[in-house]
Amino acid sequence: MQATLKLVLPLAILIGFSQQMIPVVGAQGVTITIEKDKDKKSDSKTSDSKKKAPFSGTRPSVDVAILLDTSNSMDGLIGQAKSQLWNIVQEFAKAKKRGKTPLLRVAVFEYGNSGLPASEDYIRQVVKLTDDLDKVSEALFALRTNGGDEYCGAVIKEAIKRLDWSSEPNAYKAIFIAGNEPFTQGSVDYRSACKKAIGAGVVVNTIHCGDYQQGINGKWKDGADIAEGEYLNINQDEKVVHIKAPQDTIIIKLNNELNKTYLWYGSKSKRESYESNQALQDRNASGFGGLSIRAATKSSSLYRNVGRDLVDTYEEDEDAIAKIDVVELPEELQSLSPSERLKRVEAMSKRRAEIKAKLAELNKERQAYVAAEQAKLAEPSEEATFGDAFSGTVQKQLEASGFELEK
């Protein structure tokens, strides 16, 4: 397999224009090939016409389903998904509608694993659409590969059917499906599945792990074209490099302080589970050198635990605490009076806001440092990373859904 990464941007709005191929050398020596239209004026006009009306609800919706091939050859893909989860989430943190950060929900499916029932087309819904990002991280780190048959059409069909996609007219709804076998396998026609997806307002982005032309021949690009998504071509065995920064030490310390502001509630077992899983996902991210990026995500409003943490729940509904049974409150709050509990939550809210503000400031400094270090690894004006490739896809599609992006 070639150690190269190729990115193709075949949005449906680009069909019919002449194209040129521009090679770009990545920060780790990875080559990304980007298809661009020569007629930029026509492209801009078409793109603008695709944009949806401004958001008019209480909070904009972003639903993303990640469909991962977990057959034998996909260990590298799963490793990339684990190590880059928080980078991916960070892209959505840059998006706003009328000043509001979106409510991000993520779902995960695995397919092509022979350990799954053949009667169900070797497909498993690992996590339903959820805003519990720690649960998503937990699910990714639990995935294991095992050979099998990869039925892309079937898993897309199941994702559309099973998930409770947002009904908001202007929501961003997308599938990212990754694998290396022909897109045509299985009894479910990928064309029919992709048509159903875009008919439901869900774009399908395809990520072929392997040769660029082989992916086209295997109909991965065709699937993306039908569902108005993008065709991405990657080397799943390319190692993801996280650059260390001088801000990391302080960021990690602040992350530990941030964890102390969480007041988990629910049954005793749930409280313990929420707390332990938050710490576990910190360790998982740290194992890939990405704890600083996870901490930055936790400092944003995308990392929310409404219905699990008293502080986040209180900030959304000030009357919520009074509605919770005493036995489901954190033990240190159970013996307090209602007014004392409220003061405790407010104090934690204030403390969390202070920590988040410091983390956000340090993260900006860290991003500037990392960008400078990446520039040293690449030839001038030719630097690119996998994060850049993913960023381009998400940014274009978010803007088409009416989001404004922070520059």
UniProtKB/TrEMBL annotation:
The keyword Transcription regulation does not apply. Residues 37-58 are annotated as: Disordered. Keywords: Coiled coil. It comes from the Bacteria. Residues 345-375 form a coiled coil. Residues 37-51 have a biased composition (Basic and acidic residues). InterPro entries: VWF_A, vWFA_dom_sf. Transmembrane segments: none annotated. It holds the Pfam family VWA. SMART domains: VWA. The keyword rRNA processing does not apply. Residues 63-211 form the VWFA domain. Signal peptide: none annotated. This is VWFA domain-containing protein. It comes from Novipirellula caenicola.
